[in-house]
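Reopening this ticket.

The earlier resolution said the output was attached, but the attachment link was broken on my side. Pasting everything inline this time so it's all in one place.
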Amino acid sequence: MGSFKSRVGTIIDTDRVAKMVARPGIDTRQWIGTAYVTTFEIDEEGPFVDIELLIDGRLVPETARVGAIYAGPGFGVFMPLEKDDEVIVIAPDGLIDSGLVVVSRLWSKSDPPPDLARKNPFDLLFHAKEDAVVRLKATGKGTVIIEAPKVFVRDEAGKTRPLAFLEELQAQINAFLNHIHQASDSTPTSGPIVKNTILPVVPPTIPPTFLPGDGSTVDEPKGTKVLEAQ
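Inline output:
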């Protein structure tokens, strides 16, 4: 097992050492505390932060690893931290120089929870920061399953539609691909019929439009799927 102390650069707190010597038999270790993030980075060892740890009313610079609710080799749940975030930090064995770990991020008056949470206090909510990209990835034989009596999708205009319309859209996509393959059977060609074709994701009441591909690079507009038929 590798070392977990590669980023530990703790400065000896002489005040705490003095207190320990002056009061023998009393545990002066600090197991948990609050801190404020100054920088956030991630490398091959995982995410870590430089923090200012609150100790006896003073802010002491430290470095801490960032914990995750689900983590393993090449997979896990990743949630970045930002400068000035207030966090909860724990110290294994109560010793700061053993390596600190951030275990939670806190809301406050200056960093309040989303309005949607306050308006719906008993709902479970995942609300990403504005302009953030949310990625959900399953590899190998992994499958993403959403099971609920009703599932709705809300577009940029604020209009809510049942997810069922995506099934109809998928049927339109399949019909298009079947048409392409039928054309390839009757058309003498050795290359692909369609390459980098852009299919806008639209409601089923609006026929999808297709931009003919010519093999050139095309910027994908928001809410599109790229199809390649060989």
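Reporter confirms the inline version is readable. The two ends are 47 Å apart (CA to CA). The longest helix spans residues 164-186.
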